[in-house]
Amino acid sequence: MKAVILAGGKGTRLGELAAAMPKPLVPVAGVALLEHQLRLLARCGAEEVFILSGYLAGQIRDFAGDGGKYGLKIRHIAESAPLGTAGALRQMQGVAGGDFIVLYGDIMLDMDLRRLLDFHKAKAAACTLVIHPNDHPFDSDLVAVDGGSRITAVHSKPHQPGLWLRNLANTGVCVMSEAALNCIPEGVKSDFVHDILPGMVSRLPVYGYATPEYLKDIGTPERLAKAERDLLSGKIAAFNLKNKRRAVFLDRDGVINREKGLISRPEDFELLPGAAEAVSNINAAGFLAVVATNQPVVARSLCGIETVELIHRKMETLLGEKGAYLDAVYYCPHHPDKGYPGENAAYKIDCACRKPKPGMLLRAAAELNIDLSGSYMAGDSKRDLDCARAAGVKAIAVGGLSGGDIDCADLAAAAEIITGAGK
Predict the structure, then answer these.
(1) Are strands 151-155 and 142-145 parallel, antiparallel or unpaired?
(2) What's the pLDDT at 270?
(3) Peptide bond into 356 cis (omega under 30)
(4) From CA 150, how far away is CA 201, in angstroms rounded?
(5) How far apart are the C-alpha atoms of 140 and 155, rounded to whole Å?
(6) Whole-angstrom Cα distance, residue 175 to residue 177?
(7) Domains of the chain
(8) Residue 141: helix, strand or coil by DSSP?
(9) Distance between CA atoms of 353 and 292, rounded to whole angstroms?
(10) pLDDT tens-digit profile of 124-180?
(11) What is the CA 290 to chain-centroid distance, rounded?
(12) Which ranges in 44-112 belong to alpha helices (H)?
């Protein structure tokens, strides 16, 4: 495994915290951010690391040295003039000798990098961008992906008004190939996401690797302080996909949004009062927030898959505006009853994903390494409760429903009980 760390940042927004040092050397709980990154790379099996620096490059070189103390071989490349994130990466043309992981030098992270590389290779990608939901998508660079995780569009901040966008934010981590480097002009200052990625997406196979693992920039005093708290609490290490996590599974209609029958138009989707705050509380407590919803509107030909996904983009956008996010959304478009005029016969099947069957929850557990025994399912129908019990999670009845392991008035009350139990 080879890796590149973009270590040219000044840390201007950190003020006095980075006044006399480059941003990668800012301490996080007493240890330089760069050292946190190098330790992670060593744990994941990296052998050679290239550190691309600029501002106060001598400090970076003196700190990291040849990498021997980390069990790494480190090579330093200092730019003579600022080249931006893409221009700096272009210096790797013909140097790395194959695909390599890229870490921005202001990212605090803990993730399974081997799993990322396996994904990249399985997709035969020219570039794989690590993406995940966050609590501020409105001021983040977002991407759109198709059903196979290929990136189809890049939505740089600020976003065009009126768009419903998935909360899939760029994290500052990616895997690059020589083919991807060819998209970057040599010796020209450029930003990877804003200047290069949109054109690369149209020319090469570029994929998004969505992960709930911990990846946060420490570019402001507030974000640095939060990263320190998360590190000391054990949260950062716990979020690595090698570790099982607990989840709160959420039905959609009647739990997150107002129940309006079979919703087949985005304009009919409306968040319930308190739903976003409840999801935010679930996020803050360290649970995964995962929607699992039956959407037979497709099988009934009330709308197509594209419209269901547009409705879900609206859901993610509205939640994001209030600082909440979903780690994943699973939906079942099927219905088992056949023989009705105008139905979509391709989706009229007796599937394994339609609740009360536990297929969606079991799939999520496999993909996100979820501890089902410590997880919950909040729903407003008996199907949800039966699904929860079939999957081995605690059933929470909301919206006037009874018969759950826990009965609550709404998702806000459920979140309060769940997060209280998790403390």
Answers:
(1) antiparallel
(2) 98
(3) yes
(4) 9
(5) 9
(6) 7
(7) 2-233 (3.90.550.10), 244-421 (3.40.50.1000)
(8) coil
(9) 9
(10) 999 999 999 999 999 999 999 999 999 999 999 999 999 999 999 999 999 999 999
(11) 12
(12) 57-64, 84-90
pLDDT, residue 12, reads 87
Please name the helix (run of DSSP H) or strand (run of DSSP E) that holds residue 382, with its range, or none. Answer: helix 382-391
Q: What is the pLDDT of residue 9?
A: 85
Mean pLDDT of 38-62: 97
- Best CA proximity match to 397, nearest among 419, 412, 413, 380: 380
Contact 267, 308 (CB under 8 A): no
Rounded CA gap, 18 and 22, in Å?
7
Residue 251 annotated among the catalytic residues of the structure: yes
Say which of 110, 195, 217, 251 is annotated catalytic: 251
What is the token pair recorded at 109? 């992270």
User: How confident is residue 91, by pLDDT bands cut at 50, 70 and 90?
Assistant: very high
Token pair 């001598």: residue:
58
d(CA 110, CA 79): 28
Distance CA 222, CA 354 (A): 43
- 253, 380, 384, 410: the catalytic one is 253
Distance CA 64, CA 242 (A): 27
- The verdict on whether 350 is a catalytic residue reads no
HSE value, Cβ hemisphere, 13 Å, CA-based, for 183: 22
DSSP string for residues in 386-413: HHHHHHT-EEEE-TT---SSEE-SSHHH
Q: Which of 4, 132, 166, 25 is nearest to 72 (CA)?
A: 4
DSSP code, position 69: G
pLDDT value at residue 423: 44
